[in-house]
Amino acid sequence: MGHKGGVHCLQFDHNIIVTGSWDKTCMVWDVVHFNVIAELQGHSECVSCLKFDGTTLITGSHDCTIRVWNLASFSCTNTINAHQGPITCLDFSDTILLTGSADKYVKAWSCVSYLQLGAMSHRHPVTAVMVTNLLCISGTCEGTVTFWNLESFSKLFKCRLADDPYVSSLSLSATQCYAAGTNGLLYEIDLLSTKCTRKLKGHSAAINEVQAGANRIVTVSDDQTICIWYKKAAVLSQPSDVELHTTLPVQVFQP
Question: What is d(CA 16, CA 190) in angstroms, rounded to the nearest whole number?
Fold first, then answer.
């Protein structure tokens, strides 16, 4: 028993794996035995993004809706008609849920009432979003990464990435934001200078996901490899030079 379409997104913890699929369903799997615990049905199109924390699972779909699920009862507790276009990404904290869409908006929702708190307009479809404290970071299909204040929903600054890549994933570590591009490059943005400080090349095809920790960054790619980058400070002779190419020590693994 499993999905009847390609798997589009997943998350796991010590107990379960949750997957979202083009077959319009989510499945909850036992992390030890890999058997399906529950199949969650309700979306009418592809489940494009998901995140869970504790017993709360939130899913986004190309049907333009967000669904909130209780992982204790495997029931849908809320459905939000969130956007006018396919939902491509989401993230949430204790208080705020962010959703991004092909309709060129990031919308903010209360994690208590699930009422809309605000909206942030973009010039191009939104492809990646993350929330940390009162900061929203969004990426688009035309290579822009924008930083927003979630109290006023106002733009703090925008960074245009060289080569205009489709931004597939975002991750934050200290004062560096890492943006993964489908052109195979990883971009490092310094929040203090608001500049792209370097482009990192280790993949030969699109990067699908980036996760940054205190000392390492991990990327996965369509080139069938995983890169582990070891962080060190950028040494820049021209800090404003977005075209600068520098590299980090990297290990490459092929699963």
Answer: 35
Tokens read off for 102? 């092909």
pLDDT of residue 242: 39
- Residue 34: per-residue pLDDT: 87
Residue 90 CB: number of other CB atoms within 10 A? 26
Q: Distance between CA atoms of 21 and 200, rounded to whole angstroms?
A: 31
**152-172 tens-digit pLDDT:** 999 999 999 988 899 999 999
Which residues, at least 6 apart from 58, have a Cβ–Cβ distance to it below 8 Å?
Answer: 50, 51, 52, 66, 67, 68, 69, 90, 92, 97
Q: Which two tokens stand for residue 18?
A: 């949750």
pTM attached to this predicted model: 0.88
Looking up tokens 């991004």 gives 100
Who contacts 114 (Cβ-Cβ below 8 Å, separation ≥6)? 68, 78, 80, 97
Confidence of residue 234 (pLDDT cuts 50, 70, 90): low
CB neighbours (10 Å) of residue 97? 24
